[in-house]
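Exercise 7b. Backbone tokens:
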């Protein structure tokens, strides 16, 4: 898939007030168009961005690397056609067409449109109408309108590139949006969930709403969320000829007993990550009562915790693990343990510490009845 965004910004709309078209008006310290462009250019996998401007506005075009700037026609349809033409020869297979007056677009909405294009030639965000609808005349309510099946359309509206190009070429003009053009050509358009925040600046009051939303989003971005978790685990020695510690098989005169492979260090690190996420511990996710985890390799648990962190928007900042035992000696294996753990944690080895201590022959570790491990993990909002 080669993805392009087409930003339609050739309109002269001044219903929003001001001396210049709304896309050039200031909003929270930048121009409306700059916000919208920034929002769409965050899209993962985006190959091309086309900006369609009015010929009078070419000198206002942002100096953004890789941006294709073209001029639009007298109508919205003509501007979209000009933008689609500008993508010819770029290998574009999917195109998202967006209104410049929707600067609060989020990645979530864009992602839903892109995903729906896997199964449909067109997809667009919308919100169901929830207010009661009236008809009115002369200041009086003249009737009501059933809202069942009614949606408020948003953008970006996404399409298979050649299909929407052909649809525009065949359309007589005057469509309200690209979904109308697509449907006229017989294309199915999937409805995906829009967002109330993805508002279209139309009236003067919309600037204040958009500014509040953008300022809030920026504050959220600037506040890095750091999570800290700890983990502690103990396994008892039993018969055997090796122990698994932090993913490394260490020859030893005894083994560690446990339901899984008893990798006490990896368990402590896994619990530290679950702890940082406030997601309990290994036992919650892999109950010891469940026979399928008997003898399980502990990387299954750690990988689950790392995946869970990623799913909740975190990456691993660093991990520090201390093994407490008299024997085996950890030093000769520490580098291999660091490397094995870094691979599973998907971070550079210098973000992983594996160290060891004895307990001065005191307590159960001192008597060599078992090995204990403590670990700390930081998670950083991705
Ligand atoms: Mg354990």
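Sequence design result:
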């Amino acid at each position: 898939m080669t993805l392009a965004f087409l930003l339609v910004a050739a309109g002269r709309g001044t219903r929003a007030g001001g001396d210049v078209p709304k896309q050039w008006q200031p909003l929270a310290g930048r121009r409306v168009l700059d916000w919208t462009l920034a929002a769409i250019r965050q899209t993962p996998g985006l190959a091309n961005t086309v900006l369609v401007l009015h010929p009078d506005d070419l000198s206002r075009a942002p100096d953004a690397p890789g941006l294709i700037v073209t001029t639009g026609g007298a109508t919205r349809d003509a501007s979209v056609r000009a933008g689609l033409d500008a993508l010819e020869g770029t290998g574009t297979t999917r195109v998202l067409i967006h209104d410049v007056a929707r600067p609060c677009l989020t990645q979530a909405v864009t992602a839903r449109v892109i995903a729906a294009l896997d199964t449909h030639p067109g997809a667009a965000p919308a919100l169901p109408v929830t207010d009661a609808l009236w008809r009115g005349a002369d200041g009086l309510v003249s009737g009501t309108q059933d809202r069942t099946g009614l949606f408020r359309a948003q953008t970006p509206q996404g399409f298979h590139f050649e299909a929407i190009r052909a649809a525009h070429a065949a359309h007589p003009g005057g469509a309200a949006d690209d979904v109308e053009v697509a449907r006229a050509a017989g294309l199915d358009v999937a409805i995906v969930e829009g967002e109330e925040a993805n508002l279209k600046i139309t009236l003067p009051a919309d600037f204040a709403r958009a500014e509040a939303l953008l300022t809030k989003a920026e504050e959220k971005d600037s506040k890095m969320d750091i999570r800290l978790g700890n983990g502690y685990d103990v396994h008892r020695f039993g018969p055997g000829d090796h122990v698994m510690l932090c993913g490394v098989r260490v020859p030893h005169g005894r083994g560690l007993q446990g339901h899984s492979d008893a990798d006490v260090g990896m368990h402590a690190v896994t619990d530290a990550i679950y702890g940082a996420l406030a997601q309990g511990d290994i036992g919650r996710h892999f109950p010891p009562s469940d026979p399928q985890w008997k003898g399980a390799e502990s990387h299954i648990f750690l990988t689950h915790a790392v995946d869970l962190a990623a799913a909740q928007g975190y990456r691993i900042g660093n991990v520090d693990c201390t093994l407490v035992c008299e024997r085996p000696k950890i030093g000769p294996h520490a580098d291999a343990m660091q490397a094995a753990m870094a691979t599973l944690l998907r971070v550079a080895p210098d973000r992983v510490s594996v160290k060891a201590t004895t307990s001065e022959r005191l307590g159960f570790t001192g008597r060599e009845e078992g090995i204990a491990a403590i670990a700390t993990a930081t998670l950083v909002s991705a």
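Instructor comment: The mean pLDDT is 94. The longest strand covers residues 226-238.
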